Amino acid sequence: MSELLKMLGCRYPIIQGPIGMFNSPKMVAAVSEAGGYGLLAVGFINDADTVKGLIDDVRKLTDKPFGANIVLMNPNSGEYLKILADAGVKTVTTSVGSPKDIYPVIHDLGMKGIHVVLALQHAISAVTAGADALVIASAEAGGLRSLNSESSTMVLVPLVADHVKVPIVAAGGIADSRGYKAAFALGAEGVQVGTRFLASDESPASEQWKKAIVECPDGGTGLIPLGNMKLANRLIITPWIRERLADPSTKNIADELDRNPDATGNYERAAFGAGQISALIKDIKPIKAIIEEMVS
Ligand SMILES: Cc1cc2nc3c(=O)[nH]c(=O)nc-3n(C[C@H](O)[C@H](O)[C@H](O)COP(=O)(O)O)c2cc1C
After folding, report:
1. What is the CB < 6 Å shell around ligand 1?
2. How many C-beta atoms lie closer than 10 Å to residue 225's C-beta?
3. Looking at the predicted structure, is the pLDDT value of residue 132 above 90?
4. pLDDT tens digit string along 233-271?
5. CA of residue 142 to ligand 1 center, whole Å
6. Residue pLDDT, tens place only, 175-229
7. Is the Cβ–Cβ distance between 175 and 193 less than 8 Å?
8. Which of 19, 70, 206 to mutate to test the pocket of ligand 1 (most atoms within 8 A of CB)?
9. Residue 141 Cα, ligand 1 centroid: separation in angstroms?
10. Regarding predicted confidence, which is higher, 248 or 37?
11. How far apart are CA 264 and CA 117, in angstroms?
12. Which end of the chain has less neighbouring CB within 10 Å, N or C?
């Protein structure tokens, strides 16, 4: 059994990618029930009771292991880790922020941590800070990205594998058995899957969001900068975004986008986060079917 599988305690080394503030205990449980490692996204939650409620909801649906993603910028991360440890969670992932201070806390609680990195230098620093494993989230992945030049999975996974001794997990561009097998050939011990699970029956994404993924053509996503920060979101380029990008007077699309169109009904301006792999996803199906095909 690989080091990563020992850490996760599940059957297949497939981690569900956290999706910002979107949580679905149904999806977490479906991933874990199918043999993967479901993850709650607690990074954007502001109170401990919500975290406890989500854990309880997952536990009602599965007795299989699951974890959570901690966003290091959230000042409540230490408190959430204690709640997760008390609930029996053995391994968490950590992202967005320096891992330096949190890894001693994770280890004191008897847990393992997998830090998400976007570049080689961050991978090396995370291991120095005590990360037990790494998720290598490469340029093609959905989610928060940097505007620095980033490397793709094909380049970054073997590069990091050549420089660190901890297990690595490939994230970015993996949606089927071809991507899954390729990740191992590149030196990873497992994969983290975001966009493919987002386009599943159990996903918390709206029908409009799932449809945008299924209809996304090759090259149909892009990096939309977030204000003045050196950060960007990889989003599906909708007709509205395309129009705004073509307008020379456009300064900051991020502020004009609707991040919660389910609440406002303003789907025209929706920010549909998704990876480049959207172009390969042609149907919405149950998580179990996705995982069974992936490991076949
Ligand atoms: C809409 C969206 C939101 C995301 N939010 C987070 C997040 O909060 N924390 C995180 O570590 N990763 C986040 N990710 C990255 C995913 O967890 C995962 O690593 C990535 O989607 C993998 O690449 P793929 O989309 O090609 O499968 C997000 C991805 C998407 C598409």
Report:
1. 17-20, 41, 43, 69, 95, 116, 137, 140-143, 171-174, 192-196, 198, 273-275, 277
2. 15
3. yes
4. 999 999 999 999 898 888 788 888 988 888 888 899 999
5. 5
6. 999 999 999 999 999 999 999 999 999 999 999 999 999 999 999 999 998 876 7
7. yes
8. 19
9. 7
10. 37
11. 33
12. N
Domains and CATH numbers, the chain: 3-204+282-294 (3.20.20.70), 207-279 (no CATH)
Which atom from ligand 1 is nearest to the alpha carbon of 273? Answer: 1
Output b/e per residue, 178-217; b: 16+ Cβ within 10 A.
ebbebbeebbbbbbbbbbbbbbbebbbbeeebbebbeebe
Tell how far CA 192 is from the center of its chain: 7
Sign of CA dihedral 170, 173, 175, 176: negative
CA–CA gap between residue 164 and residue 76 (Å, rounded): 30
Query: Which residue's alpha carbon is at the smallest distance from atom 14 of ligand 1?
Result: 143
Separation of CA 59 and ligand 1 centre (Å): 23
Residue 144 CA to ligand 1 centre (angstroms): 7
Mutate to test the pocket of ligand 1, among 144, 157, 260 (most ligand atoms within 8 A of CB): 144
What kind and span of H or E run contains 135? strand 133-137
| Closest residue CA from atom 29 of ligand 1 | 143
Percent of the chain clearing pLDDT 70 (strictly above): 100
Q: Which residue has the tokens 């561009």?
A: 173
Could you tell me which residues come within 8 angstroms of residue 21 by beta carbon, excluding any fewer than 6 positions away? 41, 44, 45
User: Under a CB-based contact definition with an 8 Å cutoff, are residues 221 and 232 in contact?
Assistant: no
Secondary structure element (H or E) that encloses residue 231, with its range: strand 231-236
